[in-house]
Design goal:
The chain is of the alpha+beta class. About 25% of the residues lie in helices and about 35% in strands.
Amino acid sequence: MTTLPGPCDSPAVVTRKRVPRVLPAMRRMMAKRGLHGQRSVSPPEVRKRGQGRHAAQTRYLGPMTWHSKASAVGTLLFVLLSGLAFVATAHATPSFGSHDVRTVFHIAKSDDRNRVDYGVHLNAQCQPVGEEPVYAYWHRFEPGHPRFGDLGFMDSRVYGITSQAVRTRSDNGTWVEMHLAAFPEMRILVLIQRHEGQCVARAQIPVRNRPAFVDRVFVQLRPLGVEYVRFRGIDVQTGQPVSERRRPPSQW
């Protein structure tokens, strides 16, 4: 016969008598209803065995937290890898051939004396090497850096060559058509010829709506932007110096 506890009994004694019987019954009921092992909070908890409830709440990591951490880690890795790639390419030396024309034309900026040069790979017969012979590289005049260097990732988005193709090959000259990222709508034609035993290459760009051999492009910078771009060269028909100041492209 079971004796019920009286009002003077200690709560501790009551707990010791009822726990062995109540807990198995509750577990059976929860298992029958499919609630065994579940809690009111559905996201998983990160908790070591032996820690209390408050410790579990302080260390709770929900799905959004895990997603945020994964996104942060992925972004950090991307930035680090991009930075390493930028450093590696920025200090790499471009490969020059013995018959190359290293500077067909160049783009200079107002912030320093460094510039981006565009050269062309040629063989002994002054013919382009491959179907994409034109290349871009840094030609530095400021101290503290190597004299020559490949374009970095961000540099290529402005000064890089987006497309090029050899259009004609002949003894009188070879034409290479190319486009730059900074001027996507402007067609640049590179004429390659042999003159007095030397390989010569010139870039033909429209200046004042007339064909001109342009050897330099100057970019005047301003805070957070570009003020203007100036093209300088020689008129193909008259041989006179020409210059044109243009507004920067919209993507600048």
